[in-house]
Amino acid sequence: MTTGLPVKPIDTEKFAERLRARAINAAERKILISRLSGSEQEVDLSSPTNCDGFGRIRHFKIKTSDGWPANPLPIVPACKALGIYEPPAIMMAQVFQNAACAWRCWYCFVPDALLKADITRSSWFSADELVAFYADLSDRPSIIDLSGGSPDLVPEWTPWMMEALQSRGLDRSTYLWTDDNLSTTYLFDKLTKDELILLRSYQNYGRVCCFKGFDSYSFAFNTKAAESDYEQQFRIMRRLLDLGLDLYGYVTLTSPRSEGVAAGVRTFVDRLQDLDPNLPLRTVPLEIRMFSPVGARLAANDERQISMEVQQDAIAAWNEEIEKRFEPAMRAHPISAVPLRTRG
Fold this sequence. Notes:
Shape: globular
Strand order of the largest sheet: 3-4-6-7-8-9-10
CATH superfamily: Aldolase class I
Order of helices and strands: HEEEHEEHEHEHHEHHEHEHHH
Strand content: 15-25%
Number of helices: 12
CATH class: Alpha Beta
Structural class: alpha/beta
Helix content: 25-40%
Distance between the termini: 50 Å
Number of strands: 10
Radius of gyration: 19 Å
Low-confidence stretches: none
Mean pLDDT: 94
CATH topology: TIM Barrel
């Protein structure tokens, strides 16, 4: 049986530095954006690429598989911000993907070739140029999703997009959503004081942070990074919570180990509550499903196939923990109405 853990794990700090140097031009305020047309990812898209092949439409859906919690992100927060009283079951978003990520999650729907800051598979764009693409769409979604890749490698992207939306008068009619895999502290290291203030004060903005496993072993198995980086995710999440953003979480529950799953999930929920007592109710477990890049990665690794089954045990343990820890009335809150200590 092949092993899920790399012989030499990714050195996240060094790899992130190298990728960031290739993925942002701070002087010209430009981000390296993946070209989706002609890529391996394109075959999985439900709609044709747009924005000259550098954008795509994503259909976010609240309904999930049996046994898995509904996924209201980012639909419910977007509707709250935009004054939409009844959230729809499906909502479209305009997605742009930055072209770099320091981790190599085996279940990622993005092929590895689009994660290397490869200029032959991407191009430079300013936020103004991306928002111009968005403004010209004939059937423009009300959500822009800054995805990746790893947008937290280039945290300037988010405030630059906010400024571009404001300059075109689109900030009130558009909800901005940023993905974050909690891999670096660049948001705090690279942004100016004014940019951090803009993040906190921008009305139509939400950020989702993905925990890549429920313990250090599953994290390393999933990402190819060192087990110690699992702890860094919680430290970064605490700083983001202290910043006072409208913050949400994802967690992936795949692991090659079938023993100790319930205990591992229980401890993970404990860790979330150490950050904020209500954070588990703002965190959505994501079921790993088959996309084209995933199929090849699964075929090459027996433990990854096992982990697809282990996640079913893990989600059962998650559901049990949520039911034990929160009263039905609290669990019934819309995810955007779940209070955090830093947001009331």
